[in-house]
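Appendix C reproduces, verbatim, an entry submitted by the partner laboratory led by Prof. M.T., so that reviewers can inspect both the input and the predicted structure.
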Amino acid sequence: MTSDLTALAATANTIVSGAAEQCFANARLVLANRVMTGAVHITGDRIAGITEGDHVPAGAIDCRGDILLPGLVELHTDNLERHMEPRPKVKLPHVPAILAHDGELASVGITTVFDALRVGSMVSDNEHWNRYAREVAGEILGLRARRALRVRHLLHLRAEVCSNTLLEELSEFGPDDLVGLVSLMDHTPGQRQFRDMSKLRTYYSGRYGYSDAEFDALVAARRDLGDRVRIPHEEATVSEAARLGATLASHDDTTCAHVTRSAEMGIRLAEFPTTPEAAAACRDAGIRIIMGAPNLVRGGSHSGNVGAEELAENGLLDIISSDYVPSLLLNSAFRLATLWDDLPRAIATVSATPAEATGLHDRGRIAEGMLADMIRVELMEEVPVIRAVWRGADRIS
């Protein structure tokens, strides 16, 4: 990600603060390598300093011993699509859906989000992949320009390499669109996430009412398309990500060969590797590993893939994404804190590490000079309860 994009991301949707200086005192501060009782001093929208001790200066916000964390950074969420289409074939107006999505993220402590939008549609068979990314991106940008959003929004383009319109849709985006992340998706039946054909058949019959014959026809058409376009579309997507100044990610790597291919393309983030072998290969290749909060909190993958806890226990987990349940992002970090017996390390998986992995070096940590994006949390029987959320020292929840 370019430095210009980082600067734009910091200033986009700026809310004018009512106070030039603020202090959040008597809090348990989760810093990079330790937890201490102290105060955070804010000037404008930045952290100006940190002091140790439980003293509460006049005019300061008394956190009463609650935990103060950096705002969460979310790289991959399908939450916006859920608001736009809450049920199959039930489509809602985009703007209220975006606002509802934004408000939900703010309420669970997410202060920076990469909104995942699929690019690459199906036009040759009876599928449910309609073109929408450019239109929705424009609406997000418009709301951001009008300061209607609480959270810092960037874009994550999910590039479906085995689709009909990928290259045309990618060409509609430019550097000013704040595309911070591009992931290469391949949902061809029989491999990666969909290597278990019985689960995929059950999904299509249950969600879309496909008969066996219709499903078999879909599989044949998808595999034929993949054979024809996979390699050229991958290569073109890598070039487009460079043009946009975006970080590249892979998705659902399953084999060592998948990871080797990812490394050859310059990928440094792996979303949801599906096997321990793929995750270990990612570590060897210097590719950071992202796993889903629902997988971790549920104790396993709903698709039958490797469990996030297993990878965490073996040192093969760097970043947690809420995936499709925003409220689980913070919960998953505290679950990791118990597993690792290391709260700062766990909180980094949802703050500092995703920020650094996408070139956003001005957030994700409670440290001098960082954006004052913070969450006040109280633990109730080991469950984190959010008491307040600030973005740039402005309260958003």
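The two ends are 29 Å apart (CA to CA). Additional entries are available on request from the coordinating office.
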